[in-house]
Amino acid sequence: MALILALGGSAGVVAIDDAMPEDKPSIEERLTAQSERLDVKLDLIDACRDWDNCTVDNATLDDYETHVSEKLVQINSCLADYENCTLDDLKKEHDADKANMTFEEKLENRTSRIADGLQMVEACRNVDDCDIDEETLDRIEEKLEKKSDKLERCSQDLDKCEEKHKERKHKRMKKVRHKVRKHMDEQETV
Q1: How far apart are CA 48 and CA 38, in angstroms?
Q2: Which of 36, 44, 56, 174 could be bridged to 120 by S-S, CB 3.0 to 4.6 A?
Q3: What is the pLDDT of residues 41-73, one digit of tens each?
Q4: What residues pair up with 12 in beta bridges, in sequence order?
Q5: Gap between the Cα atoms of 121 and 45, Å rounded
């Protein structure tokens, strides 16, 4: 991550891959895996639409589908022209609404999205057309349940949880800055 920040957003992902340690997956491998995960999300959304008992409303499903589809197009176009792909091509568009949300509102929003995800997994298990294997569904469900448990614990003491969140974010940024400085120093000595 520090390397990516040091090289900047306009750096080509191929250049970043060349600078990455051999034991780390390349950005191309990561993008391919992310593309596959997004395909699974689209299948889950379709399953929820097909299942009569799915409680996620159509407007929410439409929003999810739009977001996932746009991200998938972005990743697939980068994979198709990998040599010319830059980090700016993969940049996340931050939702302006989220910037104005309180920590409590963000927590509620996240809890709702997790519940929707669990509902989509359940829908996939109950729809014949859903081709996602049981192992993948179990893995997704387990991950969502862990997140749900964590958010539940967090909701018990919002102030403490928000403070921990800020501390972790600050600590991460400090660590990244240190790595960037170290990398830049190494580049100067070469």
Answers
A1: 15
A2: 44
A3: 999 999 999 999 999 999 999 999 999 999 999
A4: 86
A5: 9
pTM of the model: 0.72
| pLDDT tens for each residue of 129-154 | 999 999 999 999 999 999 999 888 88
Alpha helices in the chain (DSSP H): 2-7, 13-19, 27-50, 58-80, 87-90, 96-99, 103-126, 134-156, 158-189
Task: Say how many C-beta atoms besides its own lie within 10 A of residue 46's C-beta.
Answer: 18
The residues spanned by each domain of the chain are: 2-189
CA gap 53, 132 in Å, rounded: 19
**What token pair was written down for 34?**
């992310």
Task: Please tell me the distance from the alpha carbon of residue 50 to that of residue 73, in angstroms, as a whole number.
Answer: 24
Q: Per the structure block, which two tokens stand in for 176?
A: 């990244």
Name the residue with tokens 């750096």.
11
Measured from the Cβ of residue 22, the count of other Cβ atoms closer than 10 Å reads 5
- Of the CA atoms within 13 Å of residue 189, those in its CB half-sphere come to 6
